[in-house]
Design brief:
Part of the signal recognition particle protein translocation system, which is composed of SRP and FtsY. SRP is a ribonucleoprotein composed of Ffh and a 4.5S RNA molecule. InterPro entries: AAA+_ATPase, P-loop_NTPase, Signal_recog_part_SRP54_M_sf, Signal_recog_particl_SRP54_hlx, Signal_recog_particle_SRP54_M, SRP, SRP54, SRP54_GTPase_dom. Its EC number is 3.6.5.4. By secondary structure, this protein is an alpha/beta fold. The chain folds into three domains: 82 residues, SRP54, nucleotide-binding domain (Four Helix Bundle (Hemerythrin (Met), subunit A)), CATH 1.20.120; 185 residues, P-loop containing nucleotide triphosphate hydrolases (Rossmann fold, 3-Layer(aba) Sandwich), CATH 3.40.50; 144 residues, Orthogonal Bundle (434 Repressor (Amino-terminal Domain)), CATH 1.10.260.30. Helix content is 58%, strand content 9%. The protein contains 21 helices and eight strands. Helix 3 packs across helix 4, helix 5 packs parallel to helix 6 and helix 15 packs antiparallel against helix 16. It binds guanosine-5'-diphosphate and magnesium ion (MG). The site of magnesium ion has 5 residues, from helix 5.
Length: 441
């Protein structure tokens, strides 16, 4: 991950005061690769990296995190800010009917997203919604929307064969007015590539229906082409926002950054599945983490500071300093880890623990297991928790029964506890404990 690679870049300079130009440039080379791997368009990457480099040089390294994490945080903050900082919902506070027009390339997910948004407006916004398909190019496109309308329990405009898009838009608008709909959603025909005849049609529809929202629907797998798509649509109609579909797949979401940079308009929703409930408000911080391939580092660091109280950290540090780390300590660590979003999250955040994280991952420790671990430790007596070595085979069977687990699982925890105790001792030797305490404070 980016965090790990940056850890490598910065290993040399632990403990120095400020981020130097050379170090920042070295780190930003890794960031550049991460962005390109996430499919952010090249010109956008260039601008972004330049901007962040300027901002990062000379910043003091926070005591509580490593320089690598510091750069990740700067990058992630900048990325989040650029993506829009906060989720932006549709602005439909107008004299009804509010008109929402969907545009985009063919196959980007316009029709599906039209139905998803309509369903969301009906359920969450308690709006009366009418949908109309203006797609007379693709066979059965209008029927597709009608079928989705039934699933979404949203009305669709009756189909009149042979009618052209601009006329359908007019008819839809007057039906919406006459029948008291709050929102009219217009699903337009797609374009395989940017085609002037269809662009003209889109402009004509926009001018008769005067949409309050024009949403550009983009497949999140759109790579370097994202800039061209955004530029040509934005040049023809005044977009109010973007919807990024297929974020349920492998896409790292780089298209979000490209879209935002080129259109200057907020990403409003992400599509997260083929079904009609697969729609979420766009969360910039989450997508920034996904683009960088490292989860939400910033909020983790913040949560760490909030969750773990100074005294707990000091108590633990005290025990560690005495070379003690028993199962009571492990249990309170587990509880804190769970509060902070799980083991993987915590391990990836702690300075220098990437190795341990990998070791844990290979033991397939996930959050469900954290809960089982807690159950196992709770089934031990106080004496057993303080001195695990007294756990005989017989005692282990009792603990397994008491916690609804198996002796193997009990053994696994004991082994993990041993590994952690060893690791803690090693960290203490390296002087890493102070850093740990500071992070928790
Ligand atoms: P249009 O040509 O732009 O109207 O695209 P459609 O709405 O017909 O969607 C094309 C295909 O993409 C369909 O098979 C949809 O089920 C699928 N699709 C749309 N949005 C999503 C999404 O968010 N996730 C996934 N996995 N599939 C999607
Ligand atoms: Mg369609």
């Amino acid at each position: 991950s980016l965090s790990e690679r940056l850890g490598g870049v910065f290993d040399r300079l632990r403990g120095r005061g400020a981020l130097s130009e050379n170090d920042v440039r070295a780190a930003l080379r890794e960031v550049r690769i991460a962005l390109l791997e996430a499919d952010v368009a090249l010109p956008v990457v260039r601008d972004f990296v330049e901007q962040v480099t300027e901002a990062a040089i000379g910043q003091a390294v926070l005591r509580s995190i490593t320089p690598g994490q510091q750069v990740v945080k700067i990058v992630s903050d900048a990325l989040t800010a650029m993506l829009g900082s906060e989720a932006v919902d549709l602005q439909l506070d107008v004299t009804p009917p509010a008109v929402v027009m969907m545009v985009g390339l063919q196959g980007s997910g316009k029709t599906t997203t039209t139905a998803k948004i309509a369903r969301r407006l009906r359920e969450k916004g308690r709006k009366k919604v009418l949908m109309a398909s203006l797609d007379v190019n693709r066979p059965a496109a209008q029927e597709q929307l009608a079928v989705l309308g039934v699933q979404a329990e949203v009305a669709t405009l009756p189909i009149v064969p042979g009618q052209q898009p601009v006329d359908i838009a007019r008819r839809a608008l007057s039906a919406a007015k006459l029948q008291g709909f709050d929102v009219l959603m217009l699903d337009t025909a797609g374009r395989l590539h940017v085609d002037q005849a269809l662009m003209d049609e889109m402009k004509a529809v926009a001018s008769v229906s005067e949409p309050d929202e024009i949403l550009l629907v983009v497949d999140s797998l759109t790579g370097q082409d994202a800039v061209n798509v955004a530029t040509s649509f934005a040049g023809q109609v005044s977009l109010t926002g973007v919807v990024l579909t297929r974020m349920d797949g492998d896409a790292r979401g780089g298209a979000a950054l490209s879209m935002r940079a080129v259109t200057g308009k907020p990403i409003k929703f992400v599509g997260t599945g083929e079904k009609l409930d697969g729609l979420e408000l766009f969360q910039p911080a989450r997508v920034a983490g996904r683009i960088l391939g490292m989860g939400d580092v910033v909020s983790l660091v913040e949560r760490a500071a909030e969750t773990i109280k100074q005294e707990d950290a000091e108590k633990l540090a005290d025990r560690l300093a005495k070379g003690k780390f028993d199962l009571n300590d492990l249990r309170s660590q587990l509880t804190q880890m769970r509060k902070m979003g799980g083991l993987g999250a915590l391990a990836s955040m702690l300075p220098g623990i990437a190795k341990v994280k990998n070791a844990m991952a290979s033991n397939a420790v996930d959050d469900k297991i954290l809960i089982r671990m807690d159950a196992i430790i709770s089934s031990m007596t106080k004496a057993e928790r303080a001195r695990p070595e007294i756990l005989s085979a017989k005692r282990k069977i009792r603990v397994a029964k008491g916690s609804g687990t198996t002796v193997q699982e009990v053994n696994k925890i004991l082994k993990m506890h041993q590994e952690m105790a060893t690791m803690m001792k090693r960290m203490k030797k390296m002087g890493g404990l102070k850093g740990l305490g500071a992070l928790f404070g």
